[in-house]
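As a warm-up, study this chain.
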Amino acid sequence: MKIPIYHHGKTVFAIIDDCDAHLAKHRWHVTREGYVLRKEGNRTFYLHREILGLPFGDHREGDHRNRNPLDNRRCNLRIVTRAENNDNCGSKHRRRNAAKKVSAFRGVQWHEQKGKWRARYRDKHLGLFDDELKAAAVAEEARA
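Now compare it with the structure written out below.
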């Protein structure tokens, strides 16, 4: 099922399962990042959190497996920790910038104090490496 959302003069659609059709009765908006939300008084409700049953104050996060925040079908959503959600970040968010030493690879960060590439998986530190590609290989192996 598609929910039409009017955003800056154009229509975008949020996708939900038929069993969540009751949520279509609300007036939804889209954030700059593409997330679907509604306001009720001074509270904000995100569509994916409502579908997942995550109550206000629950620090777990809702993750869109395919990285499309308009796709709120149950098969595309999962409850995760912040670290797990960060692991599902696309490469477009990891723009390579040599001056800032930002890695283009998932699970790889520049460790400023050590001057090395750090590999990690979720909250687990996997090691420090001189070579960014080696760190990426270790992170990928841990995810497999």
